[in-house]
Amino acid sequence: MISYIYCFSLHTCKRQIILVAIVLFFSHSILHAQIQTRDFDFEGHQRNYIVYLPDNYPDSLNFPLVIYLHSYGWTAQQGMNYTLLHQIADTSGFIVVFPNAISNWNSGIGDNPDWATPNVNDVGFINALIDTVSSHYRIDLERIYACGYSNGGFMAYKLACQLSHRIAAIASVGGVISTSTAANCNPLRAIPVLQIHGTEDPWVSINGTTGCHSADQTLSYWTNFNNCVQIDTTHFTGLRYDR
């Protein structure tokens, strides 16, 4: 499955559209939640993350897990506050994890020299994060999803390429696949993809730029890989994000 939402505005898609992206995957009804902050050492770095548990946790169910990847220069807490994704987790019945990058995700966005990223193994970190979270909580290992905003969207595509044995589907808001990620993309199976992008995005151009595929090129890559007949495209107008 390939889905595409055009937003005719700036970096766009604000919290409502990010929530739309994730709601496509889930349906349950729950009321409250609890927040926990945890950390662990990975390859010489202390990595930390926020976990949001829905009200009826724990019970006999194994919960879907959504990993939200924050944007360039932001933090997990800022991503949580901005998207309000945890509110959807509370009503739809899944666990959501907000991990912190080391300054920025090493997502391939650094192929553009204007966007510096640390030389760290973030794919390995997310893989270890899944192991760590599943050791503490009731996780359905067949329903692990990654979504991200801007640089987090780049990172979601990198996970689809390099962690396809663990990630069931991805959604990217304002992020595309980088040149190096595409060149080293070897998914083990078809990956459902949702791409949301603003036609006037000033940071990540919908038409592509140095080191980055365009939104259409990104979707063409996954359409071909997934053997899709066509892309399901939805257009929105009047949405705007002022950063």
Relevant terms:
243 residues, alpha/beta, Rossmann fold, nine-stranded mixed sheet, 28% strand
Describe it.
By secondary structure, this protein is an alpha/beta fold. The protein has a single domain (2-237), classed as Alpha/Beta hydrolase fold, catalytic domain (Rossmann fold), CATH 3.40.50.1820. 28% of the residues lie in helices and 28% in strands. The protein contains 7 helices and 9 strands, in the order E-H-E-E-E-H-H-E-H-E-H-E-H-E-H-E. It has helices at 14-23, 76-83, 85-92, 122-136, 151-162, 179-183, 215-225, and strands at residues 2-8, 33-42, 45-54, 63-69, 95-99, 139-149, 169-173, 193-198, 232-237. Strands 2-3-5-4-6-7-8-1-9 form a 9-stranded mixed β-sheet, sandwiched between helices. It is globular, with a radius of gyration of 17 Å. The two termini are 31 Å apart.
Name the CATH architecture: 3-Layer(aba) Sandwich
Order of helices and strands: EHEEEHHEHEHEHEHE
Bulk shape: globular
**Straight-line distance between termini:** 31 Å
Strand content: 25-35%
> Helical proportion?
25-40%
Summarize the structure.
This protein is 28% helix and 28% strand. It has seven helices and nine strands, in the order βαβββααβαβαβαβαβ. About 12% of the residues have low confidence.
